[in-house]
Amino acid sequence: MTVSTELSTQTAPKQHVNRNPGVPFLIRVLWFFLIGWHVTLYWVVAAWFLNITIIACVGLWMLNRVPLVLTLHTQPGYTVTSVDADGAVQSRHQPTPQISCCSGSRISC
């Protein structure tokens, strides 16, 4: 009598975590003084124009990105890339949790 056993070759998903370092400070300062002021003016005007029209969600998205346009300040965080057993690659951005001095209280900082 012959018994054959098959081993399951399932592997756990592999993950790679990459910290987003952002743009170097010197480049951010040069951008701010040489380009950021002018681009941000047109960016904010376009955002408010979109806010008073029917495309308000795009205008709000643009207003939320003003620090990025003005100073190239990216959101701190890290990118998690995972590969499933099927070979599917998934990548997502995880923001770094912000610590607030007033979390859960009614006192404004």
Report what the structure shows.
The protein is an alpha+beta fold and 109 residues long. The protein has one domain (14-94). The chain contains 3 helices and 3 strands, in the order βαααββ. Helix 1 (25-51) packs antiparallel against helix 2 (56-64).
Q: Overall pLDDT, averaged?
A: 77
> What is the number of independent domains?
1
Give the C-alpha Rg.
23 Å
The count of β-strands is 3
Low-confidence stretches: 1-8, 105-109
% residues in beta strands = 15-25%
Structural class: alpha+beta
Instruction: Identify the strand order in the major beta sheet.
Output: 1-2-3
Q: Assign a percent range to the helix content.
A: 25-40%
- Count, helices: 3
Major beta sheet summary:
3 strands, antiparallel
Shape: flat
- Series of H and E elements: EHHHEE
Distance between the termini: 78 Å
Helix-strand blueprint:
Layout: E1 14-19, H1 25-51, H2 56-64, H3 66-71, E2 77-83, E3 89-95
Antiparallel strand pairs: 1-2, 2-3
Helix pairs in contact: 1-2
Structure in a nutshell:
The protein has 109 residues and is α+β, with helices and mostly antiparallel strands. It is 39% helix and 18% strand.
List keywords for this structure.
3 helices, alpha+beta, three-stranded antiparallel β-sheet, flat, disordered N terminus, single chain, 109 residues
